[in-house]
Amino acid sequence: MDAPVTVTAPAGTFRGLLDRSVLSWRGIRFAVAPTGDRRWRDPLPAPDAEGEVDATAFGPVCPQPLNPAVPLGDAAVEDEDCLSLNVWAPAASAESPRPVMVWLHGGAYTFGSSSQPLYDATSMVSTGEVVVVTVNYRLGALGFLDLSGAVPDGGFDGNLALKDVLLALRWVKRNVASFGGDPDRVTVFGESAGGGLVTTLLATPSARGLFHRAIAQSSPASSVYGTTRAQKVARSFLTRLGIDPDDAGAASAVRSASVEAIVAAGKAVYAEVPTTDPGTLAFAPVVDGDLLPEAPIDALRAGRGIPVPVMIGTNKDEASLFSFMKSPLIPITGDRIDQMFADMAAENTGVELPTREQVLTAYEHVRHRAIGLGVARDIGFRLPTLWVAEGHSTVAPVYLYRFDHASPFLRLIGLGATHATELPYLWGNLVSGPKDLTFRLGGRRVAELISARMQARWTAFARGDEPSAPDAPAWPAFAADAGDTRATLVIDRHDVVVDDLDGELRRAWGDNILSFS
Questions:
Q1: Which of 48, 51, 429, 490 lies in the 20 to 30 Å Cα band around 360?
Q2: Which of 105, 419, 422, 515 is catalytic?
Q3: How far apart are CA 517 and CA 503, in angstroms?
């Protein structure tokens, strides 16, 4: 049975819960998201709380389109003022402060929340002896739209969601010791868009000192764009709202729009952009030359990222989920992939790019109709991950993985180890409810063993140790220098370490970074 527990931190006194030997504090405000006539402005640090704060219920989720693939929980309530975080910690006392893991959820920068049932940290905390913090940030147009170029005199700020995350990390640095955490051992980790935020933070100079290790799972590390692209997206968004960006009243009109209208316009742009520009996202961090001086993929490939140890990887069949859902985000059909190659050439004039024929040599062993899935997976996830590993390994230890495991049911329906399927294993929350079909054909016991190994490796890394697991092979660091093995951990029924797992892929695509502005 839950029992209340109270902690006093610099930010205030918070009353949480004790459940199954794990303490939790939920819905703690770390920042204020300006709304109304101050919408699209930088977040403000939440004022220190007066009196005892009830931290037994999750805070609101950021307004977002409905997405059945991203269940938010029955009690989820949407509100623009959504900048809260949740803390989980072991109830047992410790001789020294525990390492801290700060989670950034995924969802294409448009969906999701820190309070999703999947991210309940009870299992990870109870087995890993860590403090886990899950963070909300603004989503979609509210968090990633940059209106400063489309309406230059409107008083709009940019990279709002990235600034939300930076404020959350500063809150952790100031307060986590009161929850038993070590502010000098903070690992930031995330998946998909959350992984993209992690790789972006590694290239954000003002994030230096706010975290000491980083884990990026299925990061779209190269899907970060410049101000010209941001202005194009902003103008499309305004048009969807029925606002002329060149009109003198554009700034006032967009700020007075209802949240429902903003979410609807954002949803339309979210679907439109990758259709017209295959392989790109509508909403993502912006290379503004200030907070984010250069594209993260450029900085990390060149070894200019914040030099902290990094764990990074992807799933074997990333793109199959997008194909299954008929999502516009990943260019899978032949004509859209051809357009993507043409766009790459246009965006990289003067650079010797691989030919289509050269690239396809990496997929000679793949069934013809699956080639699109392979190309989409690799340009969206695997190649950027490899580029990050190669560059960052010159300045800090890097551990590269690929998650290959799929339950018998997921293999039967053709999804395999698709996007996000590693998450239930990592969090130890393998079944999402009585209607979850994942283990309908068996495989639960194997899944539990994989989950235990993943939690052991992830939390060992957060402690500052080698990412090892009992009764499993050691995971050597990746190194791309001449003569090195480019070690990659393949996570499956039995973990194995493979040297230069992506060699064929690397040789086919060549060494030049393919980018979009």
A1: 490
A2: 419
A3: 28
Active-site residue, 368 included? no
- What's the predicted TM-score (pTM) here? 0.95
Active site residue: 115, 126, 148, 192, which one?
192
Q: Is 392 a catalytic residue?
A: no
Q: What is the chain's pLDDT, residue by residue, as a tens digit (517 residues)?
A: 466 799 999 999 999 999 989 999 999 999 999 988 899 999 999 999 999 999 999 999 999 999 888 888 777 899 999 999 999 999 999 999 999 999 999 999 999 999 999 999 999 999 989 999 999 999 999 999 999 999 998 999 999 999 999 999 999 999 999 999 999 999 999 999 999 999 999 999 999 999 999 999 999 999 999 999 999 999 999 999 999 999 999 999 999 999 999 999 999 999 999 888 877 899 999 999 999 999 999 999 999 999 999 999 999 999 888 887 777 777 666 666 677 666 666 655 555 666 767 777 777 677 766 777 888 888 889 999 999 999 999 999 999 999 999 999 999 999 999 999 999 999 999 998 778 889 999 999 999 999 999 999 999 999 999 999 999 999 999 987 756 789 999 999 999 999 999 998 888 887 654 444 4
Tell which CATH architecture fits domain 3-509. Answer: 3-Layer(aba) Sandwich (3.40)
E runs forming strands in 10-54? 12-19, 22-29, 31-32, 44-45, 52-54
Active-site residue (options: 318, 405, 451, 515): 318
Any idea where the domains of the chain sit in the sequence?
3-509
- Do residues 187 and 214 make contact, with C-beta atoms less than 8 angstroms apart? yes
CA 343 to chain centre: 25
Tokens of 326: 């008929």
